[in-house]
């Protein structure tokens, strides 16, 4: 009997140790940055057709656009190829990382049909 309880205790201790290590390994995992812009330089600014201009901040699978047409919080969508990312809400769809340099974007306003091509400053 003592031999069985000793094996159980050793097994439980091994399992607890493995769980602790797995927890520690997961703590250092950081999400990749959506934008290579440093915090001190501010969010990227895009100038678009139709005289639109906006800034965008990326965090936690969202893009927050601030511009003359108001602020929009967009959620990350499936889609895009390579470095291209797509975000949307019921009012707006935005694609980032377009063009050879990756500095181009397209805004597509859904309620008032309007599409504007943009370039990051």
From TrEMBL:
Cleavable signal peptide: 1-22
Keywords in alphabetical order: Signal
PROSITE patterns assigned: PROKAR_LIPOPROTEIN
Origin superkingdom: Bacteria
UniProt protein name: Lipoprotein
Organism: Polaromonas naphthalenivorans (strain CJ2)
């Amino acid at each position: 009997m003592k031999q069985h309880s000793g094996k159980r205790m050793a097994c439980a201790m091994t399992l607890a140790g493995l769980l602790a290590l797995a927890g520690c390994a997961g703590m250092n995992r950081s999400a990749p940055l959506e934008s290579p812009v440093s915090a001190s330089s501010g969010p990227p600014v895009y100038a678009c057709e139709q005289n639109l201009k906006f800034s965008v901040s990326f965090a936690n699978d969202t893009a927050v656009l601030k511009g003359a047409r108001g602020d929009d919080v967009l959620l990350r969508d499936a889609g895009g190829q390579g470095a291209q990312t797509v975000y949307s809400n019921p009012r707006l769809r935005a694609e980032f990382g377009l063009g050879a340099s990756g500095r181009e974007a397209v805004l597509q306003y859904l309620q008032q049909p309007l599409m504007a091509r943009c370039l990051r400053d």
